[in-house]
């Protein structure tokens, strides 16, 4: 038998190119939620309902109308009629009127007529039990988590490319999603070769030079860690026909076949001949130590003829990717980790693993002084120099997205009053494969923006509203901010792009109330749902109300007070529309695009610009440049 000689060894870069040319893929599949942990989403998942789905009390106490408490204090409490009670998991059977209150439990549904609640410790019950004394005043919305405050219907929940973690499972569960589209796991066949191999558990004859098969199990574990599905095949001896049979069986059933052993230049190591005859040998030998005798190629599958005999090898489009690893376990694992595992991860959509603890600098000052150890959820982002910055992520203990948007935890000792901007901290990651997002954005919730983010690799976007976005940009935390409507204060930033969006009033399908403009909200008895004060839409609405006030020669406050519901806003751009659909409001503040998507009526009021502005120190960051390219390709966006 001729001996194979190593002459022109390939460089590591050439080996990677050869493996990349195999185009290892695994397709798409839908899996039930209980099997989704660790899998990678292939499409964006939006919330189809509000979380919570109802306005709920955050404490034990009394639900009431906020205006009934105005002016109340310890010396002069408000006296309200006690008309019932509401417990968690029950539908309220009471409806509050002026001067009334209802006892309510934590997490219970707020009864109709109530817009706030007072904790029990700020109250007293009258001796006859028919009245409650309120010893403090509250504003509308106090101590209430409104529907959609955690996750709002229509809001981007998880984006394509997200590797689903237990935190994400909780978010998806809260949204009622029971099946998700994910990348398939590449099926990897593992074949160890050599007459000397024995499976663990069997007797080994050392006098004959037999050894236990180590590679099959270590490589299988590596495949699973990299996101693949490992399939173990019987080990092949050194006889060529047997080797061909087992390798072709694996090639017929798997996306990638890994063999170990029989790759060196000795006369008995013949696997390279099998690949040459049954497939295509792209590479034999790499200039690495350990791991020189490495094979890369494609392994064909013979199709049976109608008479049962084997026919010609099928075309290369039906071939399986193939990599031959050295026989020595250390060499096999080094080659696998260096060259093969990254290809499996890429096919499965899984990033390279990192250490479980990273050190970074605080992106901004964080004050704390409660005298207890704090487990602070944090996110990671890189600055313009590539250094790791750490920023707090905390939307409250009841918000699922606090953890879904975080990368790890910083333990803040009880004696620490604050963490300084730039202070070094250790972050304990939620999982070893956590990596900072390629782009961190904050700001306005917008459907056009969601489509742009879908075209980026591993972005993170925090929908905090326009005003907080500018504040965070001034602090130097995010890479970009997305701002809608007029801006009161300028900020040092570079504009990357902008687009216009039409806003107005969203009404029920068919517009049964015949709502045409803001004058209808002011002059008629209509229930309105607004956005929060952080929203750019709320800012534009306020400006429009001021113009109406000027035209009528009255104070702006008079116009605002005439709109029932103006002061009570919801967070996300679809939330008011969902209230209209539910029949809880006659009109809501929103976008034409939202109304059209939900088949609702729309009364236009105006247009407003949406701008993406970048931290001037991050314009050369890869993620920001990728965003610039996406903006330049988008038809609806004007770029600088």
**Approximate helicity band:** 10-25%
* Euclidean distance between termini CA atoms: 68 Å
Structural class of the helices, strands and pairings?
A: alpha/beta
What is the residue-mean pLDDT, rounded to a whole number? 87
- Strand share of the residues? 25-35%
Number of strands: 38
> Which CATH-level-2 architecture of the largest domain?
3-Layer(aba) Sandwich
Structure description:
With 640 residues, the chain is α/β, with parallel strands linked by helices. It has 5 domains: 28-51 and 150-183, Molybdopterin biosynthesis moea protein, domain 2 (Alpha-Beta Complex), CATH 3.90.105.10; 56-145, Molybdopterin biosynthesis moea protein, domain 3 (Molybdopterin biosynthesis moeA protein, domain 3, Beta Complex); 185-299 and 318-348, MoaB/Mog-like domain (Molybdenum Cofactor Biosythetic Enzyme, Chain A, 3-Layer(aba) Sandwich), CATH 3.40.980.10; 357-429, Beta Barrel (Beta-clip); 437-639, D-Maltodextrin-Binding Protein, domain 2 (3-Layer(aba) Sandwich). Helices cover 23% and strands 28% of the residues. Strands 30, 31, 32, 33, 34, 35, 36, 37 and 38 form a 9-stranded mixed beta sheet that branches. Strands 7-4-6-5-9-8 form a 6-stranded mixed beta sheet, with no helix packed on it. Strand 20 (302-304) and strand 21 (310-313) form a beta hairpin. Mean pLDDT is 87; it is low at 303-317.
């Amino acid at each position: 038998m001729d001996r194979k000689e190593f002459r022109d060894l390939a460089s590591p870069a050439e080996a990677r190119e050869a493996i990349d040319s195999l185009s290892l893929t695994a397709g798409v599949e839908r899996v039930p939620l209980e099997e989704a942990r660790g899998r990678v989403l292939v499409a964006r998942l939006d919330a189809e309902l509000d979380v919570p789905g109802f306005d709920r009390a955050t404490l034990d106490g009394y639900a009431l109308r906020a205006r009934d408490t105005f002016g109340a204090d310890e010396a002069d409490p408000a006296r309200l009629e006690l008309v019932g009670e509401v417990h968690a998991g029950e539908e309220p059977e009471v409806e509050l009127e002026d001067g009334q209150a209802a006892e309510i439990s934590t997490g219970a549904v707020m009864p109709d007529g109530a817009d706030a609640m007072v904790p029990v410790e700020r109250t007293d019950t009258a001796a006859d039990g028919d009245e409650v004394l309120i010893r403090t005043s509250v504003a509308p919305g106090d101590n209430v988590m409104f529907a959609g405050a955690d996750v709002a219907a229509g809001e981007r929940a998880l984006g394509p490319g997200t590797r689903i973690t237990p935190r994400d499972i909780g978010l998806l569960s809260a949204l009622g999603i029971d099946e998700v589209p994910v990348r398939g796991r590449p099926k990897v066949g593992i074949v160890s070769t050599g007459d000397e191999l024995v499976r663990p558990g069997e007797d080994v004859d050392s006098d004959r030079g037999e050894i236990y098969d180590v590679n099959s199990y270590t490589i299988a574990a590596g495949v699973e860690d990299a996101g693949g599905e490992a399939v173990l095949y019987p080990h092949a001896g050194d006889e060529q026909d047997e080797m061909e049979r087992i390798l072709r069986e694996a090639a017929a059933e798997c996306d990638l076949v890994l063999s170990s052993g029989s790759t060196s230049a000795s006369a008995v190591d013949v696997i390279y001949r099998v690949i040459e005859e049954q497939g295509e040998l792209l590479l034999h030998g790499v200039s690495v130590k350990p791991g020189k005798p490495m094979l890369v190629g494609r392994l064909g599958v013979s199709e049976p003829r109608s008479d049962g005999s084997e026919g010609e090898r099928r075309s290369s489009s039906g071939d399986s990717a193939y990599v031959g690893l050295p026989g020595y376990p250390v060499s096999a694992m080094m080659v696998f980790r260096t060259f093969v595992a990254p290809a499996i991860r890429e096919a499965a959509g899984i990033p390279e693993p990192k250490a479980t603890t990273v050190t970074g600098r605080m992106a901004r000052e964080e004050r704390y002084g409660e005298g207890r150890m704090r487990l602070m959820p944090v996110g990671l982002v890189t600055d313009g120099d590539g250094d790791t910055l750490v920023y707090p992520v905390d939307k409250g203990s009841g918000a699922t997205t606090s953890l879904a948007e975080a990368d790890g935890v910083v333990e803040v000792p009880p004696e620490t009053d604050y963490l300084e901007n730039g202070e070094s901290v250790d972050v304990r990651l939620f999982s070893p494969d956590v990596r900072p997002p390629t782009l961190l954005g904050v700001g306005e919730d917008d459907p056009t923006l969601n489509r742009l983010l879908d075209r980026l690799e591993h972005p993170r976007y925090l929908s905090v509203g326009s005003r907080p976005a500018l504040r965070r940009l001034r602090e130097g935390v995010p890479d970009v901010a997305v701002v809608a409507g007029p801006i009161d204060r300028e900020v040092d930033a570079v504009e990357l792009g902008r687009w216009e969006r039409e806003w107005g009033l969203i009404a029920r399908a068919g517009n049964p109330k015949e709502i045409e403009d803001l004058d209808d909200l002011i002059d008629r008895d209509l229930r309105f749902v607004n956005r929060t004060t952080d929203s750019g839409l709320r800012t534009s609405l306020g400006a429009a109300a001021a113009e109406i006030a000027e035209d009528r020669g009255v104070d702006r406050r008079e116009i605002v007070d005439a709109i029932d519901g103006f002061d009570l806003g919801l967070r996300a751009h679809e939330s008011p529309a969902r209230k209209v659909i539910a029949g809880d409001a006659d009109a809501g503040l929103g976008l034409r695009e939202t109304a059209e998507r939900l088949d609702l009526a729309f009364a236009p009021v105006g247009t407003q610009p949406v701008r993406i502005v970048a931290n001037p120190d991050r314009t050369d960051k890869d993620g920001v440049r990728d965003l610039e390219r996406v903006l330049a390709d988008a038809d609806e966006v004007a770029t600088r």
